[in-house]
Recover the amino acids of this structure.
């Protein structure tokens, strides 16, 4: 299969279940909502070494938010137990502290809920209030009053949807990856949690040489090792590979994001090959065959 | 004392020691260095609930970095033990994974060093190389090769330098705070770790009502509680307070940042009063008297 | 009429016809499309002193553009004669010169067209090519090849849709204006051509004192002149006024943008009054009564 | 000559005199100063088709501006006659209209001055005031009061300093150009007036085929025409060329910017060759030999 002259590998991305919370952060302006969202979703690239995976899902116009203010929607992804702890900490430290923010549940129809009881911060001065049909707590703070919901829906979603953008040199692959991230940013229900949405150093599970390492470089996908390792997965003429990793609310939106990203990446001159990462299909229940989703 | 007609409270900011690492992240362009820096310094507003405090110190021109590429300098602040763990995790998850980044020690003259051994990620394919006079490891990765130093100087610096911007309404106080942060961003050696550099919800230690809370709203500084609590610190006519919290490499640069920030804040129409936070002087060894530093 | 406690003046905005061209700029990434769009829409706030009015209408995902790349849609507004000249100059100087850009007609169904013959720049090396169903010219340039359509639909739209955001102080009014612009940015078919979308210095036609001036400060709307001029339009308690000026493809989208902007502005604390500007209804054919559109 | 393995052409950039005004725009925050600066320097890439050349020189901390607020310094470049007209129009339409801005002369020591009489906009309500040692006019406007100087120093500077970044493919050349612009942004006294600082379509004077064209594609520097035109300047292996054009206050700062940009560009993988543009030395009085400035 080829798109715009770029071969698409006959393979699939393997992905795993994750629990996801979607949080709507509103503020007086989009800028201020964005600042809170960036802080709240930082240090959250990969569950391997970060306490969760998180990212910005999208921008919400005032008429799309419960309180009629500009908003940003973020997704936080982790195991169920860690998810609650992380949502509490990130809202408490990064959003409650942020100027003019309010917080609302972005999955009000989810069957499962987690409690996020920030109102104890009010030390008894807090009170309840309905805002846009949502049951909120109001907490007196230095800037005035913070408003937020304290129950957040969570759903079992998909983590680790992915594809590889391979280029004839590093800059071509990187711009291909950036074009992919631009395209994915318009897709609802997904995030790309790595810096700029792009992974420069994909890993394999464990390490052959250093037994204490939970993960190490995926030498089969390292262009500089192409001649040095057996079974290199680097096609002739490829000098750099970037991985786009996608977490999303369900299989459909992850597949849609993968398709949007790949279709954008192949438009970039110097992108030579598209593939995807899997672990042989034994681990993750979700398989995204490139030929099917495109 | 008054500046530009705004009264400056006759008080001081009380601050505490912290260990600090300064890391220089370079990349192919400033944009890409910035993306890595933002991710690496996220979820790091306050040591109360975040694993560390971190922020962007400044932008470095290519002729200011060891490898001659655009760079961003970040500071990571924590206890000595946590600092090592956080630098390792944040570099491993947020910078090594980020496109085209390299990492260098920003405190090469510090007496104390922490090891940050990312090279094990190379699974035996890594090798040593000198870059710009620095001893680096090169790790083969999917995009090509990652380059980074593995020893980082740490110094005992200052956390919690602060001042309060009080306004006749919320927007005046917020813009005063933002002007302060703009001014501080030009000061070397400091960060403002909260979202957009501004704290909306300053806290007191513990809670009067909820004994399980390590911190709670500082009701004396809550404008909506001015008539409800004894000893409110809110001057007449003040409707909103923002706190600027500053961490820095030493007392001098924190004092300089406080002065730059306050001088900028008082230029904003509607800013009515400047004060600072302390705990009576019993806890922290650093005292920044506003009348002295201005 | 009141929204969120803010009185809405019982008045209308008066607007005028203008010719409009909508241009789709695509590039290898959204960043590069944005850079071209910003340059092409600069020095274009008001037809009084600028050669045209122009602004960014919105961001287009790759699957919304003719060539499958990230895009930005801009509107350029002027008299029919000036419009052709400005579209030619701005595309030639600001987009053809910009990295990786291509240009497509954003109003392909318009009955009237203007020719924009950039292909002569190719000095005979140019050639025709179909891209995404559009008839384009390809021009060899230093970066490779530029691709662009050379016929652009134009429609008779609306210029000067407007409303005033009045605040109890300057910062409240400004943040109200910014929230309005955030909301309008999500509305299709419109631009706000002033810096940041906000006008700080609305004008009246002519000048009472300086006869050579085509326009001068609108003293009736100057808060500092409230006690000095007869018939001041500044309500008691208002200290600052910002105007949001909207150009759009038709009356419906301008009315929608006005409503979205006003609904967002009134959510900002310290915004005290909303009004709109007109010239008594004698000049412009379009009247947007605030009570009707909200 | 080679830097980082990249050959530097044994040639020179040829540049021309231009008159330059440096304007300091301050505002309540850096964001608002930036918005005004972007609008005021738009549609100003090349004097061939734009009314002037203009760009952002740098960011100024509050302690570097006359009124103690965050600032942006811009340069506007044109013939002496056009310069006055353009400074007047751009300040009147793009800065006086912009929220919270004030304007100051950035070349107070220049011998020649141009008058920029915006105060007539005040229709008699304007008055004089000293701000930071500068003689300013205060004009009552809708947001409150605008403050600005009305005499601006101008100097005879240098336009058209330049170099070419050539790459093994388009994305490598583009990222090389962007790294160059990042480096130049830290140099005082210069601007890069094209979108993102980069020129994709360098031109030659006139046209061989279309006699009515004042400029046309420089076919000798078009990679796709390498085999089709005699005397192509494209080295073997080069697939894309970007030009960085620099205007500056004097020869020294233009040379410094060229050196900073070239040194940064050659660090980008896939950049293959650096050259510069001249017209044989017959036209411009300034010659920047690459071997001398580096």
């Amino acid at each position: 299969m080829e798109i715009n002259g770029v071969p698409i590998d006959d393979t699939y991305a393997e992905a795993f279940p994750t629990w996801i919370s979607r949080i709507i952060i509103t503020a007086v302006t989009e800028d201020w909502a964005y600042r809170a969202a960036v802080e709240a979703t930082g240090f959250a690239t990969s569950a391997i070494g970060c306490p969760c995976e998180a990212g910005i899902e999208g921008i919400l116009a005032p008429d799309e938010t419960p309180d009629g203010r500009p908003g940003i929607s973020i997704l936080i992804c982790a195991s169920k137990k860690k998810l609650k702890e992380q949502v509490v900490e990130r809202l408490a430290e990064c959003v409650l502290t942020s100027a003019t923010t309010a917080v609302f549940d972005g999955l009000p129809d989810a069957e499962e809920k987690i409690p996020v009881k920030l109102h104890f911060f009010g030390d008894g001065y807090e009170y309840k209030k309905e805002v846009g049909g949502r049951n909120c707590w109001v907490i007196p703070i230095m800037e005035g009053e913070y408003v937020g919901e304290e129950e957040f829906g969570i759903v079992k979603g998909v983590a680790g949807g992915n594809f590889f953008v391979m280029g004839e040199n590093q800059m071509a692959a990187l711009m291909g990856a950036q074009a992919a991230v631009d395209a994915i940013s318009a897709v609802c229900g997904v995030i790309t949690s790595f810096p700029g949405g792009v992974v420069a150093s994909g890993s394999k599970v464990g390490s052959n040489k250093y037994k204490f390492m939970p993960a190490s470089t995926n030498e089969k996908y390292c262009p500089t090792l192409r001649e040095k390792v057996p079974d290199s997965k680097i096609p002739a003429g490829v000098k750099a590979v970037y991985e786009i990793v996608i977490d999303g609310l369900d299989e459909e939106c992850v597949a849609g994001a993968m398709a949007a990203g790949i279709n954008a990446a192949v438009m970039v001159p110097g992108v030579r090959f598209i593939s995807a990462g899997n672990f042989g299909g034994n681990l993750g229940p979700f398989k995204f065959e490139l030929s099917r989703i495109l």
In short: The interface with chain A takes residues 4, 28-31, 59, 61-63, 67-70, 144, 175, 178-179, 182-183, 186, 260, 263-264, 267-269 of chain C (CB under 8 Å). Chain C has a mean pLDDT of 97. Chain C has two domains: 2-14+157-293, 19-155.
